[in-house]
Structure formats: C-alpha cells, structure tokens
Amino acid sequence: MNLTINNLSKTYSNGVQALDNVSLTIPNGLFGLLGPNGAGKSTLMRTIATLQEADEGEVWLDNIDVLQQKHEIKQILGYLPQEFGFYPKDRAISLLDQLSMLKGIKNKTDRRAVVEYLLKKVNLWDARKQRIGTFSGGMKQRFGIAQALLGNPKLIIVDEPTAGLDPYERRRFHNLLAEIGKDVIVILSTHIVDDVSNLCTNMAIIDNGKILLQTHPGEIIKEFVAKIWEKDVTGVNMEDFEKEYHVISTRLFAGKIFVRVFNETDPGEGFRSVEPILEDVYFYTLSTRS
Ligand code: ADP
Q1: CA of residue 73 to ligand 1 center, whole Å
Q2: Per-residue pLDDT tens digits for 32-48
Q3: N or C: where does the chain have the smaller number of CB atoms within 10 Å of the terminal CB?
C-alpha cells in the first residue's frame, strides 16, 4: 500500500500558509514526519485524516481518492490526535467498548474479544477497570493507540504522540508502534528526532509548510560521515565563531560548551571528527533552508 500526497497546499483565513505544495510518497511501515512546532505537521495529519480541507492538491491511498472518498477512508483509518479528549471518569474497558460500538462493531461478543485483545496489546489489561483520569501520560497514549487500532486500520496517523512522556514511557510507546507498523502505514508526526531515528524506515523533514527532505534515516546518516566535527568552545566568542564555521548545534556537557559543525573536510583547529546522528541531519537541513 502507498499513500501519495500531491501538491497539497493550505492557507488559513489569517493568512498563515501551513502547507506549501507538499508532495510525499509513503509506503507501508513507520514514516516519521519531523519538524519544529508550527511547521505544518498537524495541518497535514488532519488533512490526510479528512478532518479539514486543503486548498489544493490530492491524496491517494492506492486507488482511493482520500480527500473525496471520506467515507471509505474513515473505514480504514486509525487516528490519534495531538489532543485526545477522554472522559476522565470512564473506565478504560467501558470507554473502549463504547468506541468500538461507534466504529461499527455491533456484536457484543465480538466487541468484548476486540477490546480484550487491544487492551492486552497495549499493556493496559491490568488497568482496564481504572478510570482514564487516573492514567499517566504514557498510559493515556497507549489507550489512544488502542482506540486508533479499532477496526484493523490500514492507515494509522499519530500526531506528536510522545510529547510529555518520560523516557521509560516513550520507549514502551516506541516498542508498541514498531510492532503495529509492520504491515500497515503508520505516520508519526513529531518534533523529537529520537522518535524518528529509533523507529522509522522512512522520513521527511517539514518546516514552514514545505518538505525540505524525504529520505531513509539510515541512508542519509551515511552521507554525513566524516563531515561532522566537534569542539569545546567554552569561552570562545560565538558570534565570530559562527561567521567562520557552519554550526549546526551546541550542547552543554559537564559545564562546558561543545559545538558540532558541518564541514566537508577536517577544519583542523582542535576539532575532532564525530559519528553523525540524525539530529545532525535535522539541524543541518533546517539551517540550510531558504
Ligand atoms: P505543527 O503541528 O507542526 O506544530 P500546525 O499544523 O499546527 O504545525 O500549524 C502550522 C501553522 O499554521 C502555524 O503557524 C499555526 O500557528 C498555524 N495554524 C494552525 N492551525 C490554524 C488555524 N486553525 N487557524 C490559523 N492558523 C493556524
């Protein structure tokens, strides 16, 4: 299965152009849509989920015209929005049962089986009788995935799902996404580079409504080998330094300031070569945008 996005554009009534001629091809597996806040990720996710209209462009899921055949898409779509409204007093098991009814699973025995299967899959079976309002952030997100999986979706959209999760919950959520992402299309929008480097086989970087890069994380990193250099710049005048070097990131470690720069060859001057990581690709791409 392939999701093909052709020349999608959207300008809100306040004049903000959230999508600017976006084209992407997304195959089965986990696809990471990476970009800073305000880049246009949610607008793109909501448009694909048929929750809002684009001004121009087309989206195809194989031969389904997504923006026109909304009913067909809703049958095979699982969506976890950025803000998922729960009824805090509902218990996990009864809320998932209600949601499965809304999804069209009419038979009570079928529903019971599906709800049990999904709560076990997202590791919430033991908490099934707990009220959702008492769940941690990670438990809420896992519940969100359970509801997104109702009805065996072929296309799953998760919008900024790991924001606010602690490292343990994030890892657990990553494992869950990796498991479900094998046979269907999962689009994960995030501003967290680690979400993409740990999980995704394909990715794109978006900023100001424009796709800056579509690539495979493993392949693009190879192109940065021997081009990323690090140096301790504690006490150095950064303004002068930045005029001389293409600085892509700065980090503090043990009270010292380290910079990573992009340079095709060894800059000398005490720089040491470091292994590139996806974050280098991300910051480099954002720094070279026009
Ligand atoms: P992201 O999900 O990457 O943070 P969004 O798609 O939410 O980005 O927003 C992209 C841009 O569109 C931002 O500048 C945002 O302020 C603007 N925007 C989003 N929704 C609306 C709206 N309903 N009306 C006006 N502007 C909006």
Answers
A1: 24
A2: 999 999 999 999 999 99
A3: C
Put simply, whether the predicted model's pTM sits higher than 0.90 gets the answer yes
Region 62-70 average pLDDT: 96
Domains of the chain: 1-76+153-216 (3.40.50.300), 85-148 (no CATH), 226-274 (no CATH)
Ligand 1 atom index nearest CA of 159 = 2
**Residues in CB range of 251: below 8 A, 6 or more apart:** 257, 258, 260
Average pLDDT for residues 79-98, to the nearest whole number?
88
Beta strand 185-190 pairing with 29-34: parallel
Question: Using one digit for the tens of pLDDT, what is the confidence trace for 159-174?
Answer: 988 877 888 888 888 8
Q: Is 35 in the pocket of ligand 1 (CB under 6 A)?
A: yes
pLDDT band at 290 (very low <50, low <70, confident <90, very high): low
Q: How far is the CA of 17 from the centre of ligand 1 (A)?
A: 9
Q: Between residues 215 and 83, which one has the greater pLDDT?
A: 215
- Note the pLDDT of residue 172: 86
Verify whether ligand 1 is closer than 6 Å to residue 16 (CB atom).
Answer: yes
pLDDT given for residue 169 in this prediction: 85
Closest CA to ligand 1's atom 5: 40
> Do residues 98 and 91 lie in contact, with contact meaning Cβ atoms separated by under 8 Å?
no
